[in-house]
From TrEMBL:
<dbReference type="InterPro" id="IPR003749">
    <property type="entry name" value="ThiS/MoaD-like"/>
</dbReference>
<dbReference type="InterPro" id="IPR010035">
    <property type="entry name" value="Thi_S"/>
</dbReference>
<dbReference type="Pfam" id="PF02597">
    <property type="entry name" value="ThiS"/>
</dbReference>
<dbReference type="InterPro" id="IPR016155">
    <property type="entry name" value="Mopterin_synth/thiamin_S_b"/>
</dbReference>
<dbReference type="InterPro" id="IPR012675">
    <property type="entry name" value="Beta-grasp_dom_sf"/>
</dbReference>
<protein>
    <recommendedName>
        <fullName>Thiamine biosynthesis protein ThiS</fullName>
    </recommendedName>
</protein>
């Protein structure tokens, strides 16, 4: 298992915009650093919804395509 240098930067796409972020950043940290809301949103990583309970454990990877949606209730 290789460890990633915490100062290394990776490139990913957040809401369609290329971002350079530090390696080992989790989804919760990504929201905070990107000034995105942490409540009332859903996160999709590479076409898979990530439950809020996994945000602290889901580490961003190079070339991830991450979309943050406003969670809307309705019918």
């Amino acid at each position: 298992m290789t460890q990633t240098d915490p100062l290394e930067l990776i490139t990913l796409h957040l809401n369609g915009v290329e971002q350079h972020v530090r390696a080992n950043l989790n989804l919760a940290e990504l929201l905070i650093l990107s000034d995105l809301p942490t409540q009332g949103v859903a996160i999709v990583v590479n076409d898979t919804v990530v439950p809020r309970s996994r945000w602290m454990h889901a580490v961003c990877q190079a070339d991830d395509n991450i979309t943050v949606f406003s969670a809307v209730a309705g019918g």
